[in-house]
Amino acid sequence: MYGPPYAIMKKDFWDWLLQKVQLCSDAWAVMGDLNVIMDENEKLGGRPYQLREGNILKEFILNTGGVDLGFEGAPCPWQNTRSYSHHIRKQLDRAIADDQWCVSFPRVTVVHLPIYGSDHAPILLKVVGDNEKLLYPFQFLEVWSTSMECGDIISRAWNSEATGSEGTILCKKLKYTKK
Prior knowledge:
This protein is an alpha+beta fold. Helices cover about 35% and strands about 15% of the residues. The protein is built from five helices and nine strands, in the order αββαβββββαββαα. About 20% of the residues are buried.
């Protein structure tokens, strides 16, 4: 997927993509150079971060129930080709999927490969790997409730032994549930 780099074209593109995703009845994922960043931590150098740019992506994720799949590798897979004093790096490339897709591919990893011969690092989507689960904060996905094992998994996790402060116990039990 390639998102337009020009501000004047972004709203129409993201409205179009939102409509396509909302009409989709199957599991979906979007990956590529989306040409937007989520927040100021995804940019190094250049002009100050513009809040409206982050809002585009945040609203898309909120309105679709999408999950940013995270990544391994360099944090900013795009860079301009200017000298050091004018050098800019951004997290323009990413993968976003819905809960059904995440359940279908629980061991997914997005990898930012080294930048070579381009201003973008290639991104690799590995759907089979060693990771136990996606590296995103715990959230209950409604699609899990359709599984016959859902109640048993939650009961086992919350009835398991855990030590520490109340906060530590809560985090451990959420971690057990996520496994």
